[in-house]
Amino acid sequence: MSKLNFAIIALGTLFLIGCGQKLPEDMPKLYPTLITITQEGKPVVDANVKLMKKDELTYKWLAGGRTDELGVCKVKTQGKYDGAPAGDFSVVVYKTVVNESATRKSTPTPSDPAEAAEWSRKVAEEEASRDVIDTKYKKIQTTDLTISIQEGKNEKSFDVGPEVDIEFVPTAK
Predict the structure, then answer these.
(1) Residue 3 CB burial class (10 angstroms; 0-12, 13-18, ≥19)
(2) How confident is the model at residue 12 (pLDDT cuts 50, 70, 90)?
(3) CA 142 to CA 149: how far, in whole Å?
(4) pLDDT at position 16
């Protein structure tokens, strides 16, 4: 390896090491936080997890994430900064799944407008979204899950009970 190649690699490595994520000036100190979500002891994959300040619904530093294949959510603040600020939080958890449409997979969209409308209605019905975690955990007003983030590493596990099958109905604006 030439001296020039070695110098380029060394400088590149130093650049990457020295370029840690710069936090916003007013952001509080963040602490590593892992939250595990299970249903009857089994990991919940792809659940959304949000930490909500109990005393301030308009809290500026949103923290949360999504669970991995082990049901573990590595909490990030503002979606990109590792960890969560210190404090007491309600934990909101939800997972909405969309059914796959057999009609969409097996039948092309008809060219006739009336048939296409019927096809679309059937596909929409088959692809209805549904919640698979009890909806009481979906809102800050009803969840009973809490976590207290403190200095140092934080880990907490929650079991959200058996899987449910509740049709998801979007709220009107």
Answers:
(1) exposed
(2) low
(3) 20
(4) 45
